Every structure is written in C-alpha cells, then in structure tokens.
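fold description:
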Amino acid sequence: MSVEERLQDVKARIEKAERQARRPKGAVTLVAVSKTFDAEYIRPVIAAGQRVFGENRVQESQAKWPELKTERPDIELHLIGPLQSNKAADAVALFDVIETVDRDKIARALADEMKKQGKAPKLYVQVNTGLEPQKAGIEPKQTKAFVDFCRRELGLRIEGLMCIPPAEENPGPHFALLAKLARECGVEKLSMGMSGDFETAIEFGATSVRVGSAIFGAR
C-alpha cells in the first residue's frame, strides 16, 4: 500500500466510525502525525489532500515545516509533544495549535509569547488520564481549576483537551473521562485516539484523532 492509499484507508475508517457513532460526516479532524519523517515523505500526503499535521518536537519541526507551509499556506500544524518553556517562542511562531499545555509555567510562557508576537495559536490542555509518572499532562482532578486559571489569570482561550491513554489499558474509560472533563470545563474540542484506537475515540466523542503509523508506516 502506498502512503496515499493508507491515507485514504484511514479517512474511510474515520467516516465509518462517524456513521456508527451517529455523528455527522466530517465531525472528526484527522491529524496526520509526521514526526520523524522528512519533507520528502510528507509532500505526497499533502498532495493527496491532507492539510492537518502533528509533530512532537519543536526543533525537528523547524527543520521542515517553514518551507512546507510556504508551499501550502493552508496547512494547519499541531504540536502534540511535550513543550519546554524555553521553546515557547518558537512554538508560538510555528504552530497553529498547541495541544500540550499542562502546567502553570508553560501557560505563562505561552501567554507572554502570544502577546509579544501578536499570534494566537489554538490551545488544548493535556490531561494525564492514567496518572502515569513518566507522561506529561495535568491530573484529571486539577483540570478544571487549571483551565479556569489559564482563562481568568492569563487570558488564554483554551478550546480543547487532549490525552494519551496508557498503552496497556482499555482506552475507552480514558476517553470517557476526557469527555466528562471537557463538559465540566466548557470546552468543545477533544483530541484523543491514535492509530490503534481512533475508532474507539470517535465513539466517545473525539473531534480530532492523531494518526501516524497507519498513514506513514513504521518509523
């Protein structure tokens, strides 16, 4: 299967999952995760019509995406990996959506940079639904207070929540928890689901799914 065929297969699976969940066609955005792949691998996916991409690292993204975004100004680029405060300026400059806001220091750094640069990337709060010590994300019980802090203290517009369930657990309860937290916080967007579980995420209300290996192949 070519990368273009794999992209179409994933899109077809998303449409089928939307139908089965009785959700409107197009309710779910596909974020194609292009981390570790060079521009030469990404261009065919862009040529096949994909416009939304996700990257894990700011530095890696700076090496390939400015040129690609110049070629296709309608591309939307998501940061889906952990953000260090010293990379906040670069992240605000390059990314259209930052999905990994997870602590006061990052939120403050982003607020400062957005004012300085006059840019307003869309922001999601990452929630560590599995309370995994090695994983980024705010604890579920602290999520509402943190979203309120970002909005009231820093004037940030938080539009969604994001999670990465523990690899060895059933993802369903984690997706259900994120959807519940989103309702409590009054946010509409839910970034959840990856190559192995995006259909389940759609069933639980995902508005975007982050799919890499099912499109680009093994890294």
User: Anything to note?
Assistant: Strands lie at 29-33, 52-55, 76-79, 97-101, 122-127, 158-163, 189-191, 208-211. The CA atoms of residues 62 and 94 lie 7 Å apart.
